[in-house]
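Records of this kind hold a single protein each, on a pair of labelled lines. Below, a sample record shows both lines together.
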Amino acid sequence: MEIRPLTPMTPRWFMRDVPLLILVATIWAFGIGVGVMAARVRRHNINPAWLVPKERFERLLWLIWVPVIIAQNVLPALAIRRRHPLLAVPEAALLHPVFSNLRWAASIGVVLCFLVTVECWARMGEHWRIGVVPNQKSDLVTGGLYARVRHPIYAFSALVMLCAAIIVPTIPMITVAVLHFTLLILKARNEERFLLEEHGERYAEYCRRTGRFFPRVLSRNS
């Protein structure tokens, strides 16, 4: 079966891609949420490292991560316009019943990830950071989801990108998702090194009973 690109004569109902609209709205809501958290921390801390990381390694990551963040916000919005075949959602993804249902499920997943992330932000409060701040003491948050997972915000961020790649199954979006996953792993490991130096055995014991992105079935002491 030949898959033809959508044209200006395509019926209007084809343009009503609700999962894609949900994805765009939720991704931008994430951006607004980060801005709100940054402003909140700014009021309590004069050196929050929320815009430019203070550590050299994270600054290097940031050189890659900033374009990735821009792309993950822009690509879904560009897909709505369907102006370029490389950026538009493939017609097969819109027409095939199984993939269509999968895209709907992914859009619901994105919203749930956002709601859970908001709870994590609220639990972190003024201890929320984007970057590691050397020589700055911070409390170790271990309540809620943090009791089972060391980086729940990163875990749900990765899940959002997986859902985004399902809703917008294009080469650019999938590439951005893979880069995002890689950066999350590197950043999580770097934060763990920093927290281990800061909190010592307390953090080491916390790591033994929790997973990095997924709950640990058995602790390392078991």
Summary: DSSP finds seven helices and no strands in the chain.
